[in-house]
Design goal:
This protein has 435 residues and is mainly alpha-helical. It has 21 helices and no strands. Helix content is 79%, strand content 0%. Bound molecules: aspartic acid.
Length: 435
């Protein structure tokens, strides 16, 4: 395995994991063995990645912002980042809406399947609806309030509060720019060194990636619901996946047009992060690897990536917004509802906001879908219709979420003259390409 590039090793781990999962599901008790003895290694791998997320954001963002040295550069980069994130999200929702209206997957669902799905997954749907309850009752400025933590230690203890940690890190970085250089130096030196250590930890964790994804995929296969349900939801799944593939094509085209880099350059560079996003269904867990790939293999300067990517992992979810648009209209179609043009425009707005509000963890997009449904007047119980197939689609949309972040980091870097040739920064490359 030593000479293989990292993405091949991860792919191999995934493929063997899927095969192993099927093998173990073929006999009685096999699933339990996987659950008891294999799945824990997948969980440990994800935990290790998540463990790094908060220190990584703190370290790299404080360093990134303070490296900017003046605040006008920060606001220029901030404006572009948010602007591009919004544009790509709106494009994604629009693609989702066009696809679901053209294909009409909800119209192909039989009355009987609908009733079966609704009764089989009513309980699961209820729990998602309950989880969305808080957000639904929130005032218009709640998102803004949530941005500012009242206690940074508390905010850092929950991976769901990434935006608060990001806020603190940027705020701290700004302070560091404003104090006299000689006063800030020891603090800056500390964070520089801190950062190096975190990056080293990511290298170490990535050594385990092929084995981690093996365990994750094997566990997913033995836990998957039966194949009949997948078939009933086939057209819906195909619509989501088609939209997501189109999004990837748009990214590749944008890379070519705006940076002149080839599709293979972009895809080879980002693929290990994509594979990890697919296996973990979490942009937050993938963040450490996204940062490493973008800096070292796509040529984005760390000054840009350390700012753009943590924010992107939390708020830029093109795949999720596309999925929310398709799912909302699919459920409406399945219930025989006609959505007006105005209602669909409303979906563009709510799916954009809902994807921003979705946490970067598995299944979060489905919780926020409740808000899109409520706003459009679509029955929330309809979540039960799409539950069975949500996990595989979550894997696909997370892959797109991460790819979108990588694209925007390249575009922002290009616009501020910080897109260079790929080079080893301080990342240790010992886990790939070495013989
Ligand atoms: N799992 C997705 C992510 O982490 C969010 C979602 O559920 O759509 O990016």
């Amino acid at each position: 395995m030593k000479k293989l590039a990292l993405h091949w090793k991860i792919l191999l781990g995934m493929a063997i994991g899927v095969g192993f999962g099927f093998l173990m599901s073929s006999f009685e008790g096999g699933g339990t063995i996987v659950g008891d003895w294999v799945k824990p290694f997948g969980t440990i791998f994800i935990n290790a990645l998540k463990l790094i997320a908060v220190p990584l954001i703190l370290g790299s963002l404080i360093k990134g912002v303070s490296d900017l040295k003046d605040l006008s550069r920060l606001s220029a980069m901030g404006g572009r980042t948010i602007g591009l994130y919004l544009i790509t999200t709106v494009i994604a929702v629009s693609i989702g809406l066009v696809a679901v209206n053209l294909i009409g997957p909800g119209k192909t669902i039989s009355e009987q399947t609908r009733t079966e799905l609704l009764s089989a997954y009513a309980g699961d749907a209820e729990s998602k609806i309950a989880a969305a309850e808080n957000q639904k009752n929130a005032g218009p400025l709640q998102a803004l309030i949530d941005l500012v933590p009242e206690n940074i230690i508390k905010a850092s203890t929950e991976n769901g509060n990434m935006l608060q940690v990001i806020f603190f890190a940027i705020f701290f970085g700004v302070g560091l720019i404003l104090v006299p250089a000689e006063v800030g130096k020891p603090v800056k030196d500390f964070f520089d060194g801190f950062n190096e250590v975190i990056l080293k930890l990511i290298d170490l964790i990535m050594l385990a990636a092929p084995y981690g994804v093996f365990a994750l995929m094997a566990a997913l296969v033995v836990e998957a619901p039966n194949a009949d349900l997948f078939a009933a939801l086939g057209m819906y799944a195909i619509t989501v996946v088609l939209g997501l593939v189109l999004m990837i094509i748009i990214y590749i085209t944008a890379v070519k047009v705006f940076t002149g880099k080839s599709p293979s350059f972009f895809l080879n560079g980002i693929s290990p992060a994509q594979l990890l996003a697919f296996s973990t269904s979490s942009s937050a867990a993938t963040l450490p690897v996204t940062m490493e790939r973008v800096e070292e293999h796509l040529g984005v300067d760390r000054e840009v990536s350390s700012f753009v990517l943590p924010i992107g992992a939390t708020i830029n979810m093109d795949g999720t917004s596309l999925y929310q648009a398709v799912a909302a209209v699919f459920i409406a179609q399945a219930f025989g509802m006609e959505l007006s043009f105005a209602a669909q425009l409303g979906i563009v707005a709510t799916a954009t906001l809902a994807s921003i509000g979705s946490a970067a963890v598995p299944g979060a997009g489905m919780v926020m879908l409740v808000i899109v449904l409520a706003q459009a007047g679509i029955p929330e119980a309809g979540l039960a219709l799409i539950f069975a197939i949500d996990r595989p689609l979550d894997m696909c949309r997370t892959t797109v979420n991460v790819t979108g972040d990588a694209l925007v980091s390249m575009l922002v870097a290009k616009s501020v003259g910080k897109l260079g040739e790929p080079h080893e920064q301080n990342w240790d490359d010992s886990y790939h390409h070495k013989g």
